[in-house]
Design a protein that fits this description.
mainly alpha
């Protein structure tokens, strides 16, 4: 059995597929909104030093990733141990050497990876226009505006993904998440732009 097949099997027997999806969307959304907020903040402050902007955003992205990784690991490990102990008590048997024991050990790691990598990867994608500009590649928009476009597209796509999960209109769900991004940008301009 490959690692991917084993991961799917352990996620299925531990009933955590929905948790992984939720963590991906929630933390991916956090990463996108955080980067959007930072980029708008740099636009408002008229900061033009791309190195400062990239370093600040990259630092936030790494912090989001580490926060997601560590918090999910600690909480999921506790939940998996609790679930395994309840199952062992019900069966009056040690299940440490079974697939359920494997799930209690490995599922927290996979959940933590998803929880940490989602905001990191989405943040890095949003920062891509800034890196491209720093590398001398021309873009059709100024780099901060291009990053806002990338953030908006990714936030819309997260909404589309949620719509598919819920079995509702992908367009409506995507627009709802995009409206959250617009409201966030509006609040930033309202409070930070004055």
């Amino acid at each position: 059995m490959s690692i991917l097949q084993q991961a799917k099997f352990l996620l299925r027997i531990s009933d955590t597929n929905d948790i992984v999806r939720r963590y991906f969307v929630v933390n991916g959304f956090d990463g996108a909104l955080t980067m959007l907020g930072m980029i708008i903040g740099f636009m408002i402050s008229a900061t033009s030093d791309m190195k400062i902007i990239i370093n600040a955003c990259l630092s936030a992205a790494i912090a989001l990733g580490m926060s997601g990784l560590s918090s999910a690991y600690v909480s999921e490990l506790a939940e998996r141990k609790r679930s395994l102990a309840k199952l062992e008590n019900a069966m009056i048997a040690d299940l440490g050497a079974t697939a359920y024991g494997d799930a209690a050990r490995w599922v927290p790691i996979w959940v933590a990876l998803v929880n940490g990598l989602a905001p990191l990867i989405i943040s890095l994608l949003i920062l891509l226009p800034l890196w491209l500009t720093s590398a001398g590649l021309p873009l059709p928009l100024p780099p901060l505006q291009a990053a806002i476009v990338v953030a908006s597209v990714l936030i819309f796509l997260l909404g589309v993904f949620l719509g598919q999960i819920a079995g509702i209109s992908w367009w409506r769900s995507g627009m709802q998440t995009l409206l959250v991004a617009i409201a966030t940008a509006g609040l930033i301009y309202l409070f930070a732009g004055t």
